[in-house]
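Is magnesium ion placement plausible here? Inputs below.
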Amino acid sequence: RYPPAPAYGDDREALCLESQGASGAASWEHKGLLYVSAPVTQAGRQVGRIVVGASMRPLLGRVGMYIAVSGLTAGIALLLAYVGVLRIRRDMDKTELELQRLVYVDPVSNLFNRRAANNRIEALQLVASNQGFVLALLDLDDFKMVNDTLGHLVGDELLLQLGQRLSAGLGSDATVYRYGGDEFLLIVPNAPASAKSEWGIRILELFAEQLIVGPHQLTVRGSIGLAHSPEDATDIPSLLRAADTAMYKAKHGGKHAYAVFNSNMDLALRRRLRLLAELRGAIDHDELSLEYQPIVSLANGDVVGVEALVRWHHPELGTIGPVEFIPAAEESGLIIDIGQWVLDAACRQLCQWRELNLRDVYVAVNVSAKQLGRGLSDQVLWALKASGLPARALQVEITEYSIVEALDTNVAELAALRASGVKVAIDDFGTGLSSLGYLKRLPIDKLKIDRTFVKDLPGGEDDAAIATMIISLAQHLGLSVVAEGIETQQQCDWLRNAGCEFGQGYLFSRPVSPQKIERMLRGVPRLNC
Ligand code: C2E
Ligand code: MG
Ligand code: MG
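Reply from A.M.:
I modeled the complex. Tokens:
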């Protein structure tokens, strides 16, 4: 009971005949069933046909199922992709916002940054306020020490806490910005120029209490420079330079102070920048020279040594003293070259005097902290070798503060120097940390009492007590003592009676040219004492 194969002339006939082919097999579809027929042959003769009919429905069902499952899978995949894209989009928006925030906010202190400050200044300058605004540049004192000794994490936390304290302390009257490494900028809108000092005091007051960072109680100090727009400057670079100049003044006037900008400071700044720019030429064009100041025995006035003091003969500005240009040399790194020049020239000069058979004296050369950290003993050995001066005829003078900055390395460097026979003196003693604890560790031969303690002798009781203390400290540690800045006979007498062996100052001689020293060493053997 199968449906007949399509009759000849049926519309499926062509297909049927075609598929019959040589084997005589045929297939056709009828009412949803698929029929396949093949001839049954025996001994080469067709004896019948076998016809198999199968329903297409399960097949179609399976195809339908396949399409449904594929569709569902694709749908889920699309949904997942959509959710993924949404999430990426959200992350991108968040990152974009964070990046935008970082453009204006400092991640360490959470304060607005330099870019935001500059925008604010620009905006304030556009506002036609009749009062103008005050700018305070705050630079932390010795912040590097915190980073170096306690680590950067403590340093970062300190900046964060300080920023919070400044913002909270100044309230809505001022905005605090982190302007650089250890620099904050405070902008006080709508404030007259006369308010500069008042703001300096207010900011300094916020440093009164210590900050507690982890287990550390930190005393933080800062130097503040204040400028006003439009009184001191109108464009941003000049305004910031004015605040920076005032800050520099505060820092170099003893730190933890504020200074208000004035136009004289601008002149000083211009000069400082000029010296900085032209210092290289000082060495290249042979503009440096040395003066020498005698160091005498207070017992009999004999000259025992000379201190070499560098001078810069600027072709336009005239003679410039070391107090002015040595800081610029240290800032620029040229102090290494200048220091070597001074050592070479002083050693050469002393050799020439020794060859003339003059009084046998030593030469003392001032060296900077920067030299100490960059192979001072090599510089000294080079100068000794090049000149032929015996090491015992050379002394180096180093300020107390320079040594304390990196105690361990410096102790090793000084020990190497002393091992070579060169003597080491601590200059300006009493103005640094002057603690017995570290003094005992230092490989030194001599202390030089700073002239601030000599100035008011014999009347000044405090100074007399300090000078007495330094002299007995030196005796106790087996060091010799030189008092600096002796200007009067009374000072000289008092110091001699207090047990000070040597002295130096205008009473004996100002720093003078090598020719004058030569006459001094040749002619009058003793100086007024
Ligand atoms: P210092 O080493 O303490 O030198 C003594 C300074 O005091 C000299 O000033 C000297 O002229 C001055 N002085 C000496 N006696 C008296 C006195 O009786 N009264 C007064 N009021 N002053 C007196 P100068 O030459 O201006 O040198 C200042 C400082 O510059 C030196 O202080 C020293 O720290 C530094 N310095 C000088 N030459 C060099 C150098 O070649 N290298 C380095 N790194 N620093 C140098
Ligand atoms: Mg000195
Ligand atoms: Mg000194």
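Short version: Confidence is low (pLDDT under 50) at residues 8-18.
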